[in-house]
Amino acid sequence: MQEKGISQAVIGRLPRYLRYLGELKENGVERVSSQELSTLMGVTASQIRQDFNNFGGFGQQGYGYNVDFLFTEISKILGLDREYNFVIIGAGNLGSALGNYLNFERRGFIFKGIFDKNPELVGKDVRGVKVKHINDLEDFLRNNAIDIAVLTIPKTGATLLVDTLVENGIRAIWNFAHVDLDVPEGVQVENVHLSDSLMKLSYNISRYDREKK
Question: b or e along 35-67 (b: 16 or more beta carbons within 10 Å of the residue's beta carbon)?
């Protein structure tokens, strides 16, 4: 399977395909055409076929896609055929909410630990996991084969922690801190700027209002 040069736009659509295919599986649907997927997802059938052709196509003309097979193959492409251990750094409202999100485990992301420096939060229970003090982070990373760190702390703290994370085996960072992190090649970072999403919504509301005039 040739994946070199595939755009991030295509990769960004794969989780959505997976979600819809999962719903079809749950409803007992065995086959689906690109046109049927198009109707469900609001993506053109041509776009769907182009996206899937990046990975070999998966379908047969006039026959459609086997839902279970396509779900499995996209899961493999996304690396969901294995498990990833993750920790959360920051046990405030956002960090606790993420720790309580059960769907992570269903996708193979295993919640192993949560850390904070606030003594009022240390010892708090988040879905059976006790909040540890940030001073315990390095030892925990060295002894627990953690793949992913989730940062839900202010940007200054996130910047200071990066080297510690990388030096102790973290391979990827899901970054909710409003700062771009400087990491070595091979360490993956996914930035989630919540205010940016709200500003996009604001733009779309404003654009809609302007077009109505």
Answer: ebbbeeeebeeebbbebbebbeeebeeeebbbb
